[in-house]
Amino acid sequence: MTPTLLILGGTTEASALARVMADRGIAAVFSYAGRTEQPRKQPIPLRVGGFGGVDGLVRYLRDTGITHVVDATHPFAAQMSRNAVAACRATGVELAALTRAAWQPQPGDIWRNVADIEAAVAALSGPRRRVLLALGRMHLARFAVQPQHHYLLRLVDEHGALPLPEYTSVIARGPFTFADDMELMRQYDIDLVVSKNAGGNGARAKIDAARALKVPVIMIDRPALPARLELFGPDQVLDWLDHSGTDRGV
Ligand SMILES: NC(=O)c1ccc[n+]([C@@H]2O[C@H](COP(=O)([O-])OP(=O)(O)OC[C@H]3O[C@@H](n4cnc5c(N)ncnc54)[C@H](OP(=O)(O)O)[C@@H]3O)[C@@H](O)[C@H]2O)c1
Asked: Which atom of ligand 1 is nearest to the CA of 10?
């Protein structure tokens, strides 16, 4: 059977996988949620926007003849990941998650681990700090209850007023280098970082920079997800496609 792969994207790893699929001539479609105005181009066909919950994804899988799904969403995109598990179970489509190990503290790190965004907000009570809030746009409003801080935001798209009393925003698209993030944190005199434990290399420069600058980090743990096959790189995805009886078409 010739595989038709759906890559649920939005991460550096998803884009790298799309490149490998294009190079190998494996039929694959890339899916973005549509959160950014100009998503990164991909070398395979692209679809953008939600599927419409589990039912919508079930319909999409059936209508398009998808045989395999790789969930390469961000580890915090829990809803999409849960939907993928349910829809693949309902349709018998093969599912694997392209994951990356969570970051572990290294000597010199000053981390305070918290369970979720709400706990990160609570951990910000206390005197004024200059906070790099490295969370994207979605949850910013929740930090308005800690108005004593200056927040530095790095966002992909230009935007109107944001729901925080005092902030600076920098418009830039990652991945960023260690030098980029050292420069950013020095320029804005950052003395606290709030980060999701994304894992992988695409977003880790700020964590390395925080260690080098002795800046503490409030590290948000990953949400729990249903059990699913986990793969750790494009080579493992290729092996998985082989073992699930597909013909790579090369
Ligand atoms: N959460 C983060 O911190 C983070 C960071 C970097 C990148 N991202 C990327 O941004 C996207 C959205 O993240 P999120 O946290 O909003 O996810 P989420 O809460 O798990 O997803 C909410 C809804 O957005 C739609 N969706 C999410 N990812 C999709 C995809 N790849 N293709 C089509 N629809 C998708 C689905 O809508 P329907 O139910 O209508 O299908 C899903 O139910 C993800 O693709 C993720 O990889 C997220």
From this structure: 47
Pairwise CA distance, residues 45 & 50, whole Å: 16
- Mean of the per-residue pLDDT values for the chain? 95
Tens-place pLDDT, residues 210-222: 999 999 999 999 9
Distance 73 CA to ligand 1 centre (A): 7
Q: Are 10 and 174 in contact (CB under 8 A)?
A: no
Residues with CB under 6 A from ligand 1: 8-11, 31-33, 35, 50-53, 56-57, 73-74, 76-80, 83, 136, 196
* Alpha-carbon separation of residue 126 from 99, 119, 129, 142, 213 (angstroms): 35, 14, 9, 16, 21
Note the pLDDT tens digit of each residue in 82-102. Answer: 999 999 999 999 999 999 999
Residue 223 has pLDDT above 90, yes or no: yes
Cα distances from 137 to residues 152, 163, 217, in angstroms, run 12, 10, 19
pTM, 2 dp:
0.90
Cα dist from 118 to 40, 125, 137, 143, whole Å: 30, 12, 15, 9
Nearest CA to ligand 1 atom 3: 76
Q: What is the pLDDT of residues 109-152, one digit of tens each?
A: 999 999 999 999 999 999 999 999 999 888 999 999 999 999 99
Query: How far apart, in whole angstroms, are the C-alpha atoms of residue 91 and residue 81?
Result: 15
